[in-house]
Amino acid sequence: MSNESQVRKIPKKSKIIIAILIVIVAILYAGTTYLKDMKMKEILNSLGYKNTGSIQVINKMNVENRKTNKRGTLYKVVFDNKQTNEECIGFVHKDAEGKYYDDFDCKKSE
What we know:
By secondary structure, the protein is an alpha+beta fold. It is built from one helix and four strands. 6% of the residues are buried. The chain has one domain (12-108).
């Protein structure tokens, strides 16, 4: 008796299906990230940050005001303010009524 294990190769058709699924997932991830950044660019524009670049949404959290029991959304954002040549990091809060508020700490870019 031999202790050799037979290894079955993955069929070519399965490899192609796996590769196609990986490409589709990568495209969907890139698309949703791009759309999220574009939405944040519009929000920053409405808050007075007109000339921005390198926008990155780091985190999105659902929050609730304990006093009023109203829910909202809190975004952690990093972006470059090209108007003032500053790099900003901070929060954008969307309340239950759909209004946006910002809290950013901006420092001069080098």
